[in-house]
Amino acid sequence: MTSAMSSLPDFTADSISASGRSSDKLNLATLQSKIKVDPEGYTSELTLIYNQFKSSVELFLQQAALNFTSLSGISADSTVAKDLGDRALFLAHVTPFYPKELAGFPNELVRFLESSARNLPSGLRVHVTQALILMINRKIIDIADTLVVFMELQTVGDRALKNLAFSHVIHSIRRMNQKHKNDPKNRALQNILFGMLQQEDEAKAKRALITLCDFHRRKVWFDDRTANAICTACFHPSSRIMIAALSFLLDFEKIEDDDSDDSGSEDEPATPHAQIVLSKEAVYKANHKGTTSSKKKKKAKLERVARSMKKQQRLSSEKTNSNYYSPLNHLKDAQGFVEKLFSRLQSSNERFEIKMMMVKVIARTVGLHHLILLSFYPYLQKYVQPHQRNVTELLAAAVQACHDMVPPDSVEPLFKQIVNQFVHDRSRPEAISVGLNVVREICLRMPLLMTEDLLQDLVLYRKSNEKAVSSAARSLLTLFREVCPSLLIKKDRGRSANTKSKPKAFGEVHVSSNIPGIELLEQIDEDGDEEVDEENDGVTSDEHDDNNDQEEDGVSLIDGSGESDGDSELETIGASSDDNEDEVSDEDDNNYGTDDVSDEEKSGDDDDEEELEESSLMETDNSSIKDADVDKNKSKAKKRKFSDFEGQLSAANRSLRALKKLAGETSNVSSNTDDGILSNEDFQKIKELKAKEDARSTLTKHGFKVPTSDQLSLKRVDAAKLEANIRKKLTKDERKALMKAGREDNDKYRSKTAVKQKKTGGSSNKQKEHRKAMPLAAKRSKIARGRIQKKKQSKHSDKQFRGRKAWK
């Protein structure tokens, strides 16, 4: 101590007074503000305070080495500890201004906390930790160099220090990964926490597990390494660490299930979120209007709005995303994890609640990854009893562990025991309904377990008077109408039942040899061709009828009309000619008709010759119509379509909307699927047809649809749903409370006087009239009227009818 003090430089009175020092102490706050203005002018004062800090730290280190705990020691002196904490905070504040002079100060703080953190007073520990956090936030020292210290500070036993160190670790690593993820740095930090999690020290391993779980829950470290580290904590020698890891996995399952239920519920109205919109006017004002300070405020507000919009978009995309994010889903060796955890379950002496947690995790992993653990089902068989505690959770775990890759022979003893123990005539209705629901859920995953005789016996429970039992039996009946209707008797199959549908055999896999849904597209193409043929048939039959009507009426076709009928024969012969040539031929025919009319007007003497020519033309036309009737009908149908297309083109020249409609019609032409090449429009059409087919099937099946095995494995089986529609019996006190609950705040059962007494909406008009200050004459007249009314009432008092009249 003396050698450290002798090495300090001698300061003059002027320098000490200039630094803000009074008599013995330095005013650190004043000196700190002056150093920020002029760092070079206060180097001597900084050196003095830094040397004082070093000497105090050396004294504390010597005391920690000697394990000196006397009451007269320096650690018991609160003023010395306070001065040391103040100097540490002061040096942390001024470190950016003296990078060379205080280069070793952060590492000294780290070593000081590592060596003697447990022996320091609580206030001094907090001050030194705050100084270290300040330098980490200013990026003077890296979080990787101090993570071990902050994790050990959480095990000291100081609650304030534990909260401070934990919140700093969480926020600093979150801030580091906020803009982009630095994978090498994250891996280094993860290795530190993974190493602490594998230590036998329970306190350190617990804090490391809590930190990893918090990062995974906040989706900061949302990768396979973190998920596997949390899952391997289930094998820690300490039972507390194992329980913490199991509870996190099960709670994460509950969180995921609650989120899916909230997103899927349509009955409950969703809470409306305020929609944030960035208007052009706000952006213009922030950049061009107002003073500099107001522009800064407006720009900052716009940035906050943009951040909140990005956050809302991210949350909405996470909600709509169907990926499953359970840590159990990211296991690298799921089979090894399940076998190791099951062996620990068999040899553990923990209480029943802990064993149930292990059973739930094993069953969830088996169902999620479609694993095979044949010894797990006989283990569950020991606990399948109606009087067993938490039997519904146990049955839910049994259902979760069933999938189509498990051999039915290994699950059959458990299945039969559930039926025999729960579903019989002497069992309670609650047990029967739970048993039927469990049978339905197991058969949904493994329908090969059900036999014909057993199914027919279980279906008879739909006639029960208990609602829970009858609804459970009807749900089982509905399931087997879809899965395997042949097991049901004929009257129970329903109208739309397909007797050929059977469940897949064990190990059977459906391999698709073609694009799924292409048969729907081919069916639509065939239907479209049939509709076109029907339209053509309708058009030709109508035209043929028109021609027959014209012939029956005996209308003579003269001049232009006759020529056009003659040209129709040419059109049938040359049907492959171009459209322009057809238009030109029509124009020539029209001109030829007009020339004939003009010739008839000029030459009126040759009428007899022209009548003979017209009769010959009619004969040739009739013969041509009879010879080529079918070809003429086809050509006229084509000509009608061409005229429609010509009208659409003329409309498209006039309006943009008609042009878009015409382009849409031409682009919707289905491609030829014979070559096996499909376009994007075909795939989109297949998707739409599948959706329509699913909607149609769900409507015919009253909304019931058998989910796939992948969908069943992702969804957690809720034990509360196995007890659906079960009404628990109420005690007498509960029934009384239920009756009184509806009458407490109901004005229907109150007297009017009680309602008036509890009225809080102000006084009535009558009460206000009584409070009015009336003139003296008005008061006297009122009193006189009252006396007269009383006299009238007293006269008729004997004759007055008391009570309610019969006719009212």
TrEMBL record:
GO biological process, one term: ribosomal large subunit export from nucleus
InterPro entries documented for this protein: ARM-type_fold (IPR016024), Sda1 (IPR027312), SDA1_N (IPR012977)
Main location: nucleus
One GO cellular component term: nucleolus
Subcellular location: Nucleus, Nucleolus
Residue stretches of biased makeup (Basic residues): 294-313, 768-794
Residue ranges with Basic and acidic residues bias: 624-634, 729-750
Keywords: Nucleus, Protein transport, Ribosome biogenesis, Transport
Keyword Nucleus: yes
One Pfam family hit: SDA1_HEAT
Region Disordered: start-end pairs: 286-322, 525-644, 729-808
Keyword Zinc: no
Known role: Required for 60S pre-ribosomal subunits export to the cytoplasm.
Protein's recorded name: Protein SDA1
Organism: Penstemon smallii
Highest classification ranks of the organism: Eukaryota, Viridiplantae, Streptophyta, Embryophyta, Tracheophyta
